[in-house]
Each structure stands twice: as structure tokens, then as C-alpha cells.
């Protein structure tokens, strides 16, 4: 007569108790107990499968010839029809890794695949197990997770690509959610091997990822690490990786005329400006060199929609301010003085593009003001003669702009240009030292109300 599930459970528990108490770890009783636990995964009774999941860890590593079979039995439990059995299987994976560290890498990879479960309660257990693996071996576990972020080189069919993309999204969500605090506070600490593994893997992934994932990697993961605090030497490398990707998309977009690539360029420009201007994570001069070399010519800018042109110019002007405000690293690249001249030489085009967009908000007005002040400074500090095109653009802004934020007044007399910017709301990013008009007497062409305002307002 076949024993009931309850009787089998009682008998096996007794065997397990006696096997645990035997001093001889490799004795026949312990071996037979492990074999019996492995066989239980084929039982029709969930309570017996759960018993196997809870106890395999006590015996498997004493019998190398059965170790692989025992681990696979645990994996089979994770695919059982019963949710309770599956959850015990997830927990058993963690127990196996804790018992024998050499299984951390393989088990972390299995758990990572299990993130795709459609059962929310089970996903919570899987994420907890992955977090525990991070605590056990952060270097190995982060390596496994990051390997899933980097798109493979080989071609995949549509179904495989869909699965891979979904899994990458789940891993990024986990790293940016449940695992983030542990990574930032305990594992990817400055100077640690785990920090190097995480950063190197993510930097390798950036050129291969879609833009939405790049923003997640940069803003939510890398910039949360202590390694990317303002002034960090790692910031230079991160910025260069992003600039290389931007330059590649720009070349391909200009060559093919693909709108999506040029849209990517504009969004990458926003991202690198965020990195430099808002976060101060990388040298502004490095970004300014890129702007001067790639995005300040008429031939390039005219390929973008008018709104994108204006947005790019705002990024250029904001980076220009930071480069002038913050001490920049000394290197063999183009010096800041030369970059200032390039920006000023490009001002006719940059101001023209801003004017075409209509200066719709304060950010665009600020950009216009920054560029104008750069021209004024150069005029005051050197025998520079503003080009006719710049004069034409400024007059056009004066005549057609319906903004009260900025009034541009132009007076041409024997060659030199007199420019005065009157700001009702001072620019939040403007250069810090005050500016006042030249002392020589110039006949004014201002309307009376603006003339009074100019006398009352100090221009900075």
C-alpha cells in the first residue's frame, strides 16, 4: 500500500534529521538522503518538493559527483506548476550560493532570467534573492547583471531580440530600483573592484544602447555613484564616451539625412550639457571643444529643425558660461581663449538662429544675452571689428523682436559697433563681472522710455 504524502513527509524528515547529525559528511546515509531529496522534485506532492528545496543545501557540496544534479533539481523547482514550490526554489538558489560561493555567478544568471516572471509576488522574491547575491559577491553579480545590459554582437531573430530587450529593461529597472541603495552605499564604493566592474560595463554598453536606456544608465546609475561627484576624473571618460556616440550619430545623420539620428543628436546634446552644466561632472572645456568643432557651423546647424537649432545654441551658450566660470584642466587640447574667439565668430549665425525661433522663453533670452555679452567684452578688450553680418542680425532682432526681456540697441559710427543689452530680468547664467557702455559720447537712437531704463539699469 502506497504511503500518503503526510507519511512520506514524516519519514523523510526523520531521515534528514538523522543524516544531519552524522559526523561523517560523506557517509552513505547522507549520500542516500541527498539522492532521495533530488528524486522528490518529481513527486506529485508540493509539500515534498518544498521539503527538497529547503534541505538540498545541507548535503549537495559534500558529494561532487551529485552536485550538478542537485543544482539542476533546484532549478527545476523554480519552474514548477505550483507558485509555492517556485518561491521555495528561488530561496533555495540563494541558500546554495551561500553554502558554496562558486555557484554565485551561475545562480545569479538564473535569477536574472526569472525576473521575467509574470507573477508580481514571485518577482519580489527573485529581486530579494538577487540583492542577497550582490551582498555575497558584488563583483561577480554586478558582472552578470551588466552582461545582460550590453547588447550582443551576433545577430538575433525578432523573437530573441524582443526577449533580450525586455530582459535588459528589467535588469536596468532592478539596478535603478531595489538594488540601487545597496550598490551605491555598500558595493560600488570608490576604489572597489565592484565599482570598476559596474562602471566599465556601463561605459562599454552606452554606445550600443538606445538613447532612452543611455539616459537611464547615465542619470540614474552612473551619476548616483560617488565616482561621479563634481570634479571627478572619471567624468572626462564618461563625457568622451557620450561625445563619441553623438559624433557618430551626427556623421551618419548628416550623410543620410535620417531625421531620427539628428533627433538623437539633439537629445544627446541635452544629456552632455546636463552632465557638464548642471552636474559639473566633466570639464566644460571638453564639451565646448566638441561644440566648436561639430555644431557651430551653418552647414551643420541648418540640417536641424529651427527649434532644435535654438536648443543646441542654448546648450552651447550655457557650456560657454561654465567654461569661463570654473577653472578648466590644463591639457593639450584647444585653449579656452581660442574657443572664445570661435564662439564669438559664430555669433552672427547663432544669434540669427535664436532670433528665427522667436526667443520664446527665458532660456533662449539668456542664451542671446550670453552671446551678446561675449561680443561686447571682445569689443572692449581688443581692437575687434564686428562683422557686418552680426550688425545686420542685431538690427533685425531690434526691429522684429516682440520680447521685452531684451532690447538690443545698435549704433554704427566710423566702423566700431556700440551694443548695449538692457535686461528687465538679468540672465541667470550671465558672466559675473559688470559691464557699462563706453565713456565716449554717442548720440542715442533709443526711444525715451528705453533711454531712461538704460540709465537706471546696470548691465552684468
TrEMBL record:
Gene Ontology terms: biological process: apoptotic process; negative regulation of apoptotic process
Keyword Nucleus: no
Entry keywords, A to Z: Apoptosis
KW Nucleotidyltransferase (keyword) present: no
Gene Ontology CC entries for this record: nucleus
Entries under Gene3D superfamilies matching the protein: Leucine-rich Repeat Variant
One GO molecular-function entry: RNA binding
PANTHER family cross-referenced by the UniProt entry: APOPTOSIS INHIBITOR 5, APOPTOSIS INHIBITOR 5-RELATED
Family per record: Belongs to the API5 family.
Protein name per Swiss-Prot or TrEMBL: Apoptosis inhibitor 5
Originating species: Collybia nuda
